[in-house]
From TrEMBL:
Keywords linked to the UniProt accession: Iron, Iron-sulfur, Metal-binding
Organism phylogeny: Bacteria, Bacillati, Bacillota, Clostridia, Eubacteriales
Protein name: Benzoyl-CoA reductase/2-hydroxyglutaryl-CoA dehydratase subunit BcrC/BadD/HgdB
Cofactor: [4Fe-4S] cluster
Xref: InterPro entries: FldB/FldC_alpha/beta
Pfam family of the protein (one): HGD-D
Length: 329
């Protein structure tokens, strides 16, 4: 089966309906044996130092995977550099398919984009709905993993993160993913509930730093809400046959106001003590921190900027430690 890469979460039902293998290129990059080497490779190819590490990592990840000949680039609703990225990829013989989440969140515009994608892969919306029913069985389990984190205090922040972020492509095989997830759930259920951790929310782009969650848990705190990763699970659309509406309610590609509505609800529901807002160097989303701080005055917020993959630097570790100490009872 052919693999179809993509630059951020897309209606993955279309790819599975076409009997193809979806590949989230962000996950390929960040889980590579040497993700830093991917950055260097892209910079050697001419990518500016001031380009986001994720874009450079995705570029090199694609070229490193000779079995990915087609990439879906989300040119509206995600990174503003994606349009230029797919132009460079086409120079390297990679077929690129643009996909947009309309900023207006207009139902009919989004429907046109999804139908266009269906036509390219020669599948029907009806077939995608059938696939969605199968994926929703897995998504219910992902929602349960989330509950095991924030409600039962058994799953770790890292487990919550990794299973949710992997749901963007279900690791390319939904059956294997389902089996591994079920096994993981059984393991977590057997644990005793953890201690009374400081309850943190993580908002913004998924972390590029490999040791963030472990470091936080070493300070008697736990991330019990991963904002964007949770959105990737599409748990909000479980049971909804209207695929267009499900991806219209997906907050990540649209305005910050939609994200803030979800964040505020989760802060109250999960009784979150503090928020960690991670921004990526050279990303426009860093500016959104101004709005986030004004709109979430009721909860302490720590913002820090990430750049390249690897462990947290000493300064960021110190800031996290001081933040958790400040909000501790």
């Amino acid at each position: 089966m052919n693999k179809i890469g993509f630059t951020t979460s897309i209606p993955v039902e279309v790819i599975f309906a076409a009997d193809l293998i979806p590949v989230d290129l962000n996950n390929v990059f960040i889980t590579a044996a040497n993700p830093g080497g991917y950055i260097e490779k892209a910079e050697n190819a001419g990518f500016p130092r001031s380009t986001c590490a994720w874009i450079k990592g995705i570029y090199s990840a694609i070229l490193d995977k000779s079995d990915i000949a087609t990439v879906i680039g989300v040119v509206e609703g995600d990174c503003s550099n994606t349009r230029a990225l797919i132009e460079v990829l086409e120079l390297n013989g990679i077929k690129s398919i643009p996909f947009s989440y309309p900023n207006s969140r207009d139902y009919h515009q989004l429907k046109c984009e999804i139908i266009k994608l269906c036509d390219i892969f020669n599948v029907s919306i009806e077939r995608c709905k059938e696939v969605k029913k199968e994926l929703d069985v897995i998504r219910k389990k992902l929602a349960y993993i989330d509950e095991l984190t924030w409600k039962h205090n058994k799953a770790t922040g890292m487990e919550n993160h990794i299973w949710q972020v992997s749901s963007s492509d279900f690791n390319g095989c939904c059956k294997a993913f389902d089996s591994e997830l079920s096994e993981k759930i059984r393991e977590i259920e057997e644990r005793e509930s953890g201690d009374n951790y400081i309850r943190l929310g993580y908002i913004g782009v998924p972390p590029i730093n490999s040791d963030l969650y472990d470091f936080i848990e070493g300070l008697n705190a736990r991330v019990i809400f991963n904002e964007v990763q949770r959105q990737f699970t599409m748990a909000h659309g479980i049971g909804n046959e209207d695929i267009v509406e499900v991806y219209r309610q997906f907050t990540y590609p649209y305005s910050l106001n939609n994200r803030l509505e979800d964040i505020k609800k989760q802060i109250e529901l999960r009784k979150i003590d503090g928020i960690i807002h991670c921004t990526q160097a050279f990303c426009f989303r860093g500016i959104e921190d101004i709005v986030i701080r004004r709109q979430l005055p009721e909860v302490p917020i720590l913002t820090f900027e990430c750049d390249r993959p690897g462990p947290l630097d000493a300064r960021t570790r110190l800031r996290i430690e001081a933040f958790i100490d400040m909000i501790s009872p």
